[in-house]
TrEMBL record:
Swiss-Prot/TrEMBL keywords: Calcium, Ion transport, Receptor, Repeat, Signal, Transport
Protein name: G-protein coupled receptor 98
Cellular component, GO, one term: sarcolemma
Native source organism of the sequence: Araneus ventricosus
Biological classification of the source: Eukaryota, Metazoa, Ecdysozoa, Arthropoda, Chelicerata
GO molecular function: calcium:sodium antiporter activity
Length: 222
């Protein structure tokens, strides 16, 4: 018995399965196929089909189509089977496991609420708000990372990288980055903070880079 496994999105319309003839192609060959419920149910998740397949002498492959139903339910991956039996030898059978991937979960779009801020060197910290829009389904993590400009990590601010985790349904988080107050007279300094690598199908919005300007508080720069 041969087994194969395929995965299709719920909105695919139909999954196309190819029946291959192996071990030679001489003479005709006949069989029948039918769907079998698994966690996916005929009528609600896919259309039940059954039928006959006939290979002519020299014919090597044929295809069958199973319609997939797209619903608005949030659900885990579901599966059903398509079984193929050879007419002259019922012991010869193949099973295709079809996994239906739900398309109704929307993990959302992640970005900063603002795109820039100016802070005094003695302000202690800068607070950034990360917002989640266009869906809040499932848990998502993403990485926040700073990038030096004229302001330098360890000299002007702290925090190089951090993983930010959102729970299912969570819409925003605030992250604090400490600003280092020194006694050096200097002009405005800059660094950037970016969002990277969202998980579980989430995406980044256009406002995924945040610019910080640190204004000196040690007197006039000359």
């Amino acid at each position: 018995m041969d087994k194969v496994e395929v995965a299709v999105p719920e909105d695919v319309g139909a999954t196309i399965l190819t029946i291959m003839r192996t071990g030679g192609s001489e003479g005709p060959l006949h069989g029948r196929f039918f769907t079998v419920d698994g966690t996916a149910q005929a009528g609600s998740d896919f259309e039940s089909i059954n039928g006959n397949v006939s290979f002519e002498n020299g014919e090597m492959s044929q295809t069958i189509s199973v319609p997939i139903k797209d619903d608005a339910l949030k659900e885990d991956m579901e599966n059903f089977m398509v079984e193929l039996l050879v007419e002259d030898d019922p012991s010869m059978r193949s099973i295709a496991f079809v996994n239906i991937i739900d398309n109704d979960n929307n993990p959302g779009v992640f970005e900063f609420r603002e795109s820039q801020v100016s802070v005094r060197e003695g302000s202690a910290r800068v607070s950034l708000t990360i917002i989640r829009t266009d869906g809040t389904d499932g848990s998502v993590s993403l990485r926040l990372r700073t990038v030096d400009g004229s302001a330098r990590l360890g000299e002007d601010y702290t925090l190089r990288s951090k993983v930010i985790s959102f729970s299912d349904g969570e819409r925003e988080k605030t992250v604090d980055i400490d600003i280092i107050d020194d006694n050096i007279r200097e002009g405005p300094e800059h660094f950037k903070i970016g969002l990277f690598d969202p998980t579980n199908g989430a995406i980044l919005g256009p406002n995924s880079i945040f610019a910080v300007t640190i204004l000196d508080d040690d007197g006039e720069f000359s």
